[in-house]
Amino acid sequence: MGKHTYLSDSFNIFDFIIVCFTLTSFFIENYMQKAVKIGAAKAFRSMRALRPLKLVSKSEGMKIVVSSLLTAIPNLFNVLLISLLFFTIFAILSV
Questions:
Q1: What is the pTM of this model?
Q2: Quick count: other Cβ atoms within 10 Å of Cβ 25?
Q3: Largest CA-CA distance found in the chain, in angstroms, rounded
Q4: How many degrees, rounded to 5, is the angle at CA 88 between CA 87 and CA 92?
């Protein structure tokens, strides 16, 4: 784990996790018994939806957009709470 290794970048860690889920899904679908295959394969198959996010690591502009969105989530949570407060007040008044 040095300064310029593959797993030192967070996007590369994310890419590594997606590849691990894909390989695990492939193993489960092809080599496990039928009873185990059905439940476990569905869980890992849902992780395939994350594959397009691997493209984020290729583009510097997309990295900036995703990083900005992730840093904005706590502030959006506060706005959500205030909005829910107003929605609740107007829902009570409308009933």
A1: 0.45
A2: 19
A3: 62
A4: 115
Sign for the pseudo-dihedral over CA of 75, 18, 46, 64: positive
Q: Which residues contact 12 (CB under 8 A, 6 or more apart)?
A: 6, 57
Cα atoms in the 13 Å half-sphere on the side-chain side of 82? 5
Per the CB < 8 A criterion, the answer to whether 13 and 21 are in contact is no
Task: Give per-residue pLDDT as tens, 23-78.
Answer: 877 777 777 665 555 666 666 666 666 667 767 767 788 878 878 888 888 888 88
At 5, give phi and psi (nearest 5°). Answer: -90, 170
Angstrom CA distances, 76 to 51, 79, 82, 85, stand at 26, 5, 10, 14
Grouping H, G, I as helix, E, B as strand and the rest as coil, residue 1 is coil
